Amino acid sequence: MISLRRRLLAGLLFAPLLSGCFASDGGASSSGAPRSGEGARLRVALAFPPTENYSPYGQDALILSRLGVAEGLTRLDANGAVVPALAESWSSEKGDLSWLFTLRKAEFQDGSKVTPTAVAAALTHAAQAKPQPAALAGITLTAAPAGGDQVRITTGTPDPVLPQRLSNPDLAVFSPKAYGENGKVNPIGAATGPFEITSTTGTTAATLERFDGYWGGRAQASGIDARFIADGTARVNALRTGEVDIAEAVPASQADSLEAGTVHQTATARTVSLYLNTQSGPFRDPGFRAAARSAVDTSVLAKDMFDGYGDRAVGLFGPAVTWAAGKWIEPSGRAKAADVKGVSLTLATYNNRPELPETAQVLQQQLQKAGFTVKLQVREYSRLESDVLAGKFDAFIAARNMMLDTGDPVSVLASDFTCHGTYNLAPLCDSTVDKAVAEAEAAADPGKRQDAVMAAQAAILGTDAVVPLVHQRALTGVGHSVSGVLFDPYERTLVGLGTRR
Fold it and tell me: Which residues sit opposite 28 in a β-bridge?
């Protein structure tokens, strides 16, 4: 069974403690069966189109998770505690080097059973994926059947938050038929969630039907018609005209234009930051990075660019991460700002979140005032990500949920700021940072792990590779006829068993 220590570690270690922000499935009985009556199809507008043909090893994994398609062995509840999903229970062995997971009786959407062999194979594929899923940054993982309905998962070094790590959408479990040659994964009809993707229209739309064999009961909605609308104004207009029932990422500038009661605000751990390319271009020079950081005035951004739906950033972790403020460590060792007169740079961002281009324009002006010459590029995210990760821009503005990967910020710090990180937007490679993150990864005691996280944050901020700007709140548009939407501070879920209209 799940020990009290493990539940406390997973639930209290890094939880934002946002009571009331994460609505339940609302509509399912305690047995998982929906109420009498059945909802119509849901029409959902998502902000980020698939970039990798719904591969579960990247940003597309969030699409599969938010639409109720895929799930892993565990999930996070409203307070960030790890709770059962495909695994009913678990326990650690050998000082956290291995963990034994007991599976529940469940089936894949292709009708095959969820077995220890299938689960072990799915996790092995994830561990071998290139690039490595962010949730596995810094660890090695192996999985094997352990007899009966159990799976044993082993890591190269002790990992006290492995059950929490396995809640990441990148580590969802699919049936054997999903895994093809060359590491490709086709999740269509091969997941375990309450909704099944039955067809897609490129990167513009997807059709989902209810999966009646779901272990948690039948969803109240009969299906989902998902549209991917990168433009925020278009998403809001679709909600306003009744073309969609749910629209994620409502632009802050348009929230007040929607009918009362249709915009829902959720505190999150998402921080908008300016990432500076430390590998090539002008920001290889720490003095130029220091000059850029000194030029940025964040005081106007939360009020003007986010219309009050955000907070001025203090570090990487916002007010949703309640323990962080009391453990702040001042960054040290920062370089002295250099003279940047005549230094040219390219600043990029994406328009899926409408506040970001506006923020970029303000930062362009601030940097130019400091002496930089700034060229601005704005694209849709799917057309931008690969170039950013390849280091083709000097500076990049992005919104990142610092608790997204596991509900434990250590995994985000490892993937985003270490030499071998797979989502390193800076791209930063600093031995002091790597050492600090490794110490945080090794800390099992909750208080000591929090302290180590803040020390790692101080080391990261000391490089000036990232300049936190605004701690953002999520705005979701929901039609009056819709109930049971999941307002998730971790931004992993949106539609569940009880979502209906």
Answer: 34
Pick the closest to residue 175 from 213, 220, 226, 136 (CA basis).
213
In angstroms, the CA 465 to CA 428 distance is 7
If pLDDT is split at 50, 70 and 90, which confidence band does 406 have? confident
- Whole-angstrom distance, CA of residue 57 vs CA of residue 60: 7
Lookup: tokens for 243? 């073309």
Residue position matching structure tokens 């700007």:
469
User: Domain 268-472 belongs to what architecture?
Assistant: Roll (3.10)
Model pLDDT for residues 293-309, shown as the tens digit of each residue: 999 999 888 888 888 88
- Strands 395-401 and 263-276, sheet pairing: antiparallel
Sorted by where each begins, the domain ranges of the chain are 4-222, 268-472
Please name the residues in contact with 218: beta carbons below 8 A apart, sequence gap of 6 or more. Answer: 33, 34, 194, 210, 212, 497
Please give the full DSSP string across 199-264, using - where no structure is assigned.
Answer: EEETTTEEEEEE-TT-TT---SBSEEEEEE---HHHHHHHHHTTS-SEESS--GGGGGGSPTTSEE
Is 4-222 CATH 3.50.50.60? no
The structure tokens listed for 479 are 């039609």
Is a pLDDT exceeding 60 seen at residue 37? no
Distance CA 422, CA 478 (A): 34
Residues 6+ apart with CB under 8 A from 130: 183
Classify residue 84 by burial, with Cβ atoms within 10 Å: 0-12, 13-18, 19+. middle
Burial class (CB in 10 A: 0-12, 13-18, 19+), 297: exposed
Phi, psi of 330, deg, nearest 5 = -70, 130
